Amino acid sequence: MHDEEYMQQLSLGIDTAFDALVFRYHKPLFGYIYRLLQDEKLAEDVVQETFLKIYQQGQKGFVPDQFKPWMYKIATNTCKDYWRKPASRLEYVTDQDIEKAGQVHHIIDHQLERQWMVESLNQLSLDYRTVLYLRFYQDFKYSEIALALDLSINTVKTRIARGLKQLENILVTDERKGASGNE
């Protein structure tokens, strides 16, 4: 069944349709949000808040034309709301343990190169990071990214190109630092 059909059922009061959406999207949505926020507990809270908003919209009878980009738009905006809250930002962002916790959390990811890439991506601005995560980690098409972030396709293409260029510069710089440190 298509996601939009589940939303249609939810709008008719069939709550099991919502369960199917949560089952289908919890893991990829968590991965996307975690990559943006680098905090496991906060990412889980944002996932729950995102699904709550989806449920509430479904109960009101709203059925999006394309569910997946709409859902990621809600998730992205919820992350942006977090960044706008000064108290939350101080609690999480100024904590120097975030970097260590992020490294420890990825015990599953024993691949140092992957961690290096994630750390490099996290040096990018939120605008560039978001489009790159949606494109390369969530496998979104440009049109889906545009819908999810409420941007034009040209803006999406520009942000991806600029983000990749900045990422390349970061990786080259890090590689040079590593090479000079080993001599």
Automatic annotation (TrEMBL):
It comes from the Bacteria. One of its GO terms (molecular function) is sigma factor activity. GO terms for biological process: DNA-templated transcription initiation. SUPFAM superfamilies: Sigma2 domain of RNA polymerase sigma factors, Sigma3 and sigma4 domains of RNA polymerase sigma factors. Transmembrane segments: none annotated. Keywords: DNA-binding, Sigma factor, Transcription, Transcription regulation. It holds the Pfam family Sigma70_r4_2. InterPro entries: RNA_pol_sigma-70-like (IPR039425), RNA_pol_sigma-70_dom (IPR014284), RNA_pol_sigma70_r2 (IPR007627), RNA_pol_sigma70_r4_t2 (IPR013249), RNA_pol_sigma_r2 (IPR013325), RNA_pol_sigma_r3/r4-like (IPR013324), WH-like_DNA-bd_sf (IPR036388). Residues 115-167 form the RNA polymerase sigma factor 70 region 4 type domain. Gene3D superfamilies: 1.10.1740.10, Winged helix-like DNA-binding domain superfamily/Winged helix DNA-binding domain. NCBIfam families: sigma70-ECF. Belongs to the sigma-70 factor family. ECF subfamily. This is RNA polymerase sigma factor.
